[in-house]
Amino acid sequence: FDLWSAKLDVQLLSEDAQAAAATARDAMRRFPAAPEAVLLAIRAASRMGDRDAALALLSDARQAAERLEAPSRTFVLRAVAAAYLKLDDAAGAAALWTRLADADAKDAESRRLLFELARARRDYTEMEKQLSALRAAAPDSPESNFAEAAYQIALATRPGVPPEERRDLLRKADEQLTAAENTRGGWSEFSRLRAELALLQGRWGTAIRLLQDLHSRGLASDGQKAQLIQLLFLTGRDDEAESLLSSLPADRRRPELRRIQAELLMREGKADEALAIALQNPEDPPDAVEYMWQARLLALANRPKDAEEKLRAAVASAPDWPAPYLSLLSLAVLRGQKDAAMQVLKEAASRLQGPAGCCAVALGYETVGDPQSAEKYYRRALEVAPLDPGPKLEWAGFLIRTRRGEEGRRVLEELAAAKESSPESQWIVRNARRNLAQLLAAGGDYRNFRRALDLLDQNLREADAALDRLIKIRLTAGRPEKSLRLQAVAAYEKEAQAGTNLPAEDRFQWAVALESLGRWPDARARLAELLRPPAQSGRHLEFYIRKLIAHDSPASEIRPLLEDLAKVAPSPWTASELQARLAAREGEPREAARILGTFLEGKDDSRPRPPAPLVLRWFEELGLHQEAEDRWRSLVSSQPQATLGLAGFFGRRGRTDEALALCRAALQTVPPESAAAVAVGILRARREACTPDRIAAVEEILQAAEKASGRTRPWLLTRGSFLQLLGRHQNAVA
To answer: What is the pLDDT of residue 110?
Structure first.
C-alpha cells in the first residue's frame, strides 16, 4: 500500500479531492478484504477540504469496513467513527459507537467515546447514563476511571457553580485521574484530560506543557492545537505561538480553528474581521480563557473598555484563577488608572489562595511598582509551601528583576540541583536550569558559558525538548568566538532541515550570526523573510536597516523601511537616528547634522528625546567632529557634569592632554572615582599615548579620587585596571 498511500498524498497536497476520492475507492475495490484499503479512504476523507465529498467517501468506507473480518472490522469502524467526528458529524460517530457498544457488552472504549460526546454537548443525563454503562461493562478499567474523572470536571464547569464547590470537584477529578493513571500509564487520553484539568485549575504553565507534549507526539487534536496557540499568546510566549501557527495547514475554516483564523486576521491588520470571528461565542457561555482571549484581541484593536468588560467576565467566571486578575490589573496600569489597579489587586488578594495565589498577588504589586509588598507575598508563598519548587522559581525571578542577582542565582542553583518526582515539579526544575543557564551566559565569562551549556545538556538528557536545543544554540550564537558562532549557524541549519519551527528570535539570531561571519547575502535573505509584513519586530527591523546602511544598500530600498520603522521602533528616536546615518552615508552631512540637532534643540516641546551625550556620540560616529565638539562645549557650559563626556571625546580624537586636563578639572564637579575611571579609560584606548608625564597625571587623578572618596569598589576596580595597563599584574591582582 506504500505506492497507493504516496499517490493519495500527492493528490491531497494538490487539493485534487476528486482524484483522491477515486484513488481511495479504487483501493477498496481492488483489496476488499484489506483493512489498509479502508484506512486509506478514511485518511483521504479526513484531509479533504470538501466536507460533502468527504462524508460521501466516508460512507463508502463504512460499508467496506462492515465487510471485513471481525477483529479488523471493530478497529476500522472505530476509525470511521473518529473520522465522522472530525468532520463535525457527531450523529454519525454516535451511531457507530452505539452499534459497537451494543454488539459487545464489554466494549469500554466505545462507551467512553459516547460519554465524551455527551460531555461535549453538556448533556448531563446522557453522561450519567454512559458512565453507568461503563461501570457495568468494565469496572475499575482505565476507561471507566477516565470517565469518572471527566464527569467531575464536567460538573465543575456547569454555569453558576460556587468557587468552593468547583475547587472540590476539580480536586476529586485530580484524585480519580491519578488513580486511573496507575492502571494504564502513558495513555494519551490521560494527558488530554490532565491538560484540561490544569487549565481549569488556572495552572496554565502545566496545561501548556501537556498540550505541547501531545502536539510533539502528533496526538493533539485541531482544537487542542488552537487552545495551545491561544494559551501561548495569553502568556506572552508570542514566538512559540507564531511558530506553531505557521506550522498548521492552510485550511482553518473548521469551528475549532476559528481562534487561529482570528489571530491570523489580527496579524494582517484586519482587526474588525478578527473580532467578528472571535466574538461569535460558539460556547454558551464562554469560559474564562475564551473571555481573556477576546479581551486580548480587543486590546490589540485599541478597544480597552471592551477589553476590560471581557476581563471582568473572566474574573466572574473563574474567581479563583490568578490570570484574569493580572490581565485586568495590567490593563488598568496601561490606561493610567492606578486606583482601579489597586482595587483589582485588593480583590485578588482577598480571593486567591495557596502559593500560586500569593505569587500572583506579588506579581501584581510588582506591576504597580510596589516591590516591598511584592516581596512580602513572595515570602508568604514560600512559607505556605516550603517544599514546592514553583514559588521558589517565582522568587528567583523577583530577586533577579530587583537587581539581587546573586541571591536569585543561589535560588536557581538550588532548584537546578533538585531531584523531583512529579512531572510538574520536574518541568519547574528544567525551567530553573534554563533560567540559570541564560543568567550565567549573560555575563560573558567563558567558564560560565560552558556551565550554561552543561545545564541545558542535563535538560536534554532528561527530555529532548526543542526549547533547550534552541536556547543552547542562541547562547552559542551570541559568543564573540568565531568558532562558536560557526557552530551555532550549523546547528540552526540542522534544526531547519529537521523541520523544527524556529521562533522569530532564533531566526533573528541566526541572521545576526551569519552577518557577523561575513555572510551578509545569507543574513539579508533570512532577515527579509523574517520581516515580511505584517509581522515586524521593531528591534529586528532596526538591525536590518543598520546593516543595509553599513553594507551600502540603495537608499531607495532603505527609505520605505524607515517609514515602517517609525511605527514599530523600540524607541521614539531610532528612525530619525537612522535617517541621519543614511544622510551621512549619502554625502549629506548638513542634513545628518540637522536631523540630529533636532534632538538637542526646541526643548520646550514634550516629545521623548535621547540623552544628549548619546546624540553627541552619534555626531562623532558620523564624522561630524567639529559639530560634535561645538555642541559638547555648549553642553558643558550649561551642565558641568558633562565635562567627562567632552574628555572622552577628546581622548578618542587623540587630544590626550586636553582630555586628562578635563578629567583633573572634573574632580570638583563629578564623583571623583568617575573622573579617575575616564582618565584610565583614555590611556587604555590609546596605549601609544602612555608617556611618563601622562601616566603621572593619571596617577595624580587616582590619588585625588582616593583622598576624596576613599577606596571604594569603583576606585579599586579602576586602580586595578590602571596597574594592569602598566604591566604591574601582581599589584593589579592584589
So the answer is: 87
Q: What is the pLDDT of residues 246-268, one digit of tens each?
A: 766 555 445 556 677 788 788 77
614-669 pLDDT, tens per residue? 999 999 999 999 999 999 999 999 888 899 999 999 999 999 999 999 999 999 88
pLDDT confidence of residue 604: 54
- Measure the CA–CA gap between 397 and 408, rounded to whole angstroms: 7
Whether residue 313 sits in one domain with residue 351: no
Q: How far is Cα 697 from Cα 51, in angstroms, rounded to an integer?
A: 86
- Residue ending a domain, among 358, 381, 404, is 381
pTM of the model: 0.76
Instruction: Indicate if 626 and 657 belong to the same structural domain.
Output: no
Q: How far is CA 54 from the centre of its chain?
A: 37
| Nearest to 328, CA basis, from 355, 356, 374, 288 | 288
Looking at the fold, whether 678 and 708 belong to one and the same domain comes out as yes
Whether residues 574 and 620 share a domain: the answer is yes
Please tell me the distance from the alpha carbon of residue 317 to that of residue 328, in angstroms, as a whole number. Answer: 14
The grid coordinates of residue 684 equal 587604555
In a shared domain, residues 262 and 352:
no
**Alpha carbon 704 to its chain's center:** 50
* Alpha carbons 569 and 542: distance in angstroms, whole number: 7
Torsion of CA 94, 98, 101, 102, to 10 degrees: 180
- Total domain count, the chain: 4
Task: Tell me what percent of the chain is helix, strand and coil, each rounded to the nearest 5.
Answer: 75, 0, 25
Please determine, for residue 543, whether its predicted confidence score (pLDDT) is greater than 70: yes
Co-location of 305 and 338 in the same domain: no
Provide the grid cell at 712.
571604594
Domain holding 257, by residue range, is: 221-318
d(CA 694, CA 696): 5
Where is the domain boundary, 614, 634, 654?
634
User: Distance between CA atoms of 435 and 396, rounded to whole angstroms?
Assistant: 9
- Provide the H-helix boundaries in 217-287: 222-234, 238-247, 258-267, 271-278
According to DSSP, residue 687 is labeled G
Residue 552 DSSP SS3: coil
In a domain? residue 76:
no
pLDDT, tens digit (0-9, with 9 covering 90-100), for 202-248: 888 889 988 988 887 777 877 788 888 888 888 888 778 877 877 66
pLDDT tens sequence across 77-115: 888 888 887 777 888 888 888 888 888 888 888 888 889
Q: What is the CATH number of the domain that holds 699?
A: 1.25.40
C-alpha grid cell, residue 698: 593619571
